[in-house]
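To whoever picks this up:

The nightly regression suite flagged Sodium:proton antiporter as changed. Nothing in the input moved, so I suspect the structure step. Input below, exactly as stored in the fixture:
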Amino acid sequence: MSRTARIRLFWAAAVVFAVAYAAACTGLPRFGTLAHPYATRAVAAALHQRTANVVSSVNFDQRAFDTLGEESILFAAVLGTIVLLRHARDERTGRPRPGRVLPSTRLLGMVLLPVTLLTGVYIVAHGQLSPGGGFQGGVILATGLHLAYVAADYRVLKRIRPLAFLDAADAAGAGAFAALGLAGLVAGGAYLQNVLPLGTFGQLSSGGLVPVVNAAVGVEVGAGVIVLLAFFLDQAVEVRSPEEHGTGGGG
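Regenerated output under the current build:
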């Protein structure tokens, strides 16, 4: 296809999209009114599905298929980073230099690391009950692990970071979300339809499929962020420039 044909095709698609978007916007309620049809339906649906946190109900139940797409974007970003930042043939690596950390920083990091990890697990596990969920809790878990880098150095982080296991966990979390959608089809409903027992409102086991999908997202996000940062840190700390490698700077 020639450049002129591609430009014409782009403008034709842009015009169609602009007309459709403008027509859709005319059907929205006016700003500043008391009419919120989507919010009203979302809250009612969340209560019906016994999910106390309406946001989690929207993300992992009412529009779970959209959330699957969002999770896939993160998974693709991690995969792309692994491919782009893998070691090239002309790259040389050196041993990370030991870091110098104040005793107060080391002590604070040692105290906060388990607390942060526990907080992340709590946020993921209670996503259907209170603000938070898999995305937020997964980021907290990844942040907690990297307190070892702040409070000690890269060598300590590398020792406590099971990268091969986290690679597999990232893929397993993303795959579990997609596989859980089949439960609805097996039950004769729709993909990602909430078909598990809804439990008791306000309890940890409430929400049916919501906490299970939420946990899969927490695993995928937590593991994915750690793997993502691992490759960036590897480039910043271990990979040496030719000049630095030649002068023995990798010690």
